[in-house]
Design brief:
With 351 residues, the chain is α/β, with parallel strands linked by helices. It has seven helices and 17 strands. The strands form four sheets. It has a six-stranded antiparallel beta barrel with strand order 12-15-14-13-16-17.
Length: 351
């Protein structure tokens, strides 16, 4: 039975994951990532909370410095995407390049064979194909498979999600039963490396040009108002535009080359097709023909019926059965067959 390194934040989910693995007889260690100065994941409280849980469980705890690789693989991409008017999903890249790559490599040097996290997801192995398969967590309201679609077969084969079969309430009950300090901690919905979840304040230090004011235009090029930096806007946004109009206006395009935000009516904020790139297929080796599936274009997006057609190497054309609101380039699109994750990619364009 190989040693497991549990990525611990001090929160309920990762703490219960460590407790369950120890209960099952695995040799367990806790590892907490240091990513960059500032942000919840790098606060002393965050590290101390994880260490307290490890002490209660009687397992060793290590703080692992991943600041350089985090800067290269996640933060640089996050800033570049906003610089070009796109809406990135840093959690997807963090899972692919940090938790299940850089962190695993560091943990292996400490004797670990696997990485476990508190994600609400499940992983199994297909007995026929030998592929590692990714599944939704049983708690539909907390399912996090969307953020894990980019994991490679090797990464999934070395991944454990011990709480994927539990609801959030059941996980909290385990934490209380085992008297884990995490049972008293509130759940954060913020991006862990942005202090106070203040995107604008964070980004203006890295990409000041994206914080420069510019025009808000309609589709005919008429100026309706001014924006406070393209980084503050995303496709489909309606609130906070600060313009006077006879009917609601939505952001339908961002033009970084002109430092302009383009708005239109509600109908123009919908689309029924997109192109996605940087595909990673989980349930299959690659896509060779058109398939039907369900898709999410955001974490909290309701699944929509689609057809997916491969073309030009690492691209797919996606056609929705019904138009969808706010198809935002830069976001992830993930395809499902029931509870099973087929794969996913990055939205390149909505045309």
């Amino acid at each position: 039975m190989g040693k497991v390194a549990v990525a611990m934040s001090g929160g309920v989910d990762s703490s219960v994951a460590a407790a369950l693995l120890k209960e099952r007889g695995y040799p367990v260690m806790g590892v907490t990532m240091r990513l960059r100065p500032g942000g919840e994941a790098n606060s002393p409280d965050f590290v101390n909370d994880a260490r307290r849980v490890a002490d209660v469980l009687g397992i060793p705890h290590y703080v692992i410095d991943l600041r350089d690789v985090f800067q290269e693989k996640v933060l640089a991409n996050f800033c570049q995407e906003y610089r070009t008017g796109r809406t990135p999903n840093p959690c997807v890249r963090c899972n692919r390049y940090i938790k299940f790559d850089a962190l695993l490599n560091k943990a292996r040097a400490l004797g670990a064979h696997y990485i476990a996290t508190g994600h609400h997801a499940r992983v199994t192995k297909d007995s026929n194909s030998g592929r590692a398969l990714l599944w939704k967590g049983l708690d539909r309201g907390k399912d996090q498979s969307y953020f894990l679609y980019a994991l490679t077969q090797e990464q999934l084969s070395n991944a454990m999600f011990p709480i994927g079969h539990l609801t959030k309430e059941e996980a909290k009950a385990v934490a209380r039963e085992k008297k884990l300090p995490a049972s008293r901690r509130s759940e954060s919905q913020d991006i862990c490396f942005i202090p106070g979840n203040d995107y604008a304040e964070f980004l203006k230090d890295f990409i000041p040009q994206a914080a420069q004011p510019g025009p808000i235009l309609d589709e005919q090029g008429n100026t309706l108002g001014s924006h406070q930096g393209i980084m503050n806007y995303t496709i489909g946004q309606r609130k906070g535009l600060g313009i006077a109009a006879s009917e609601p206006r939505y952001v339908i395009a961002i033009e970084p080359e002109n430092n302009a935000v383009i708005v239109g009516d509600r109908e123009r904020a919908f689309g029924d097709e997109l192109v996605a790139t940087q595909m990673n297929w989980v349930a299959i080796d690659r896509l060779t023909e058109t398939i039907t599936a369900k898709a999410r274009i955001r974490y909290r997006h309701s699944e929509a019926e689609v057809t997916v057609t491969p073309f030009d190497g690492d691209n797919v054309y996606v056609k929705f059965k019904k138009p969808q609101l706010a198809i935002a380039p830069g976001q992830a699109i993930v395809f499902y067959d029931g509870d099973k994750v087929l794969g996913g990619g990055t939205i390149k364009s909505s045309h």
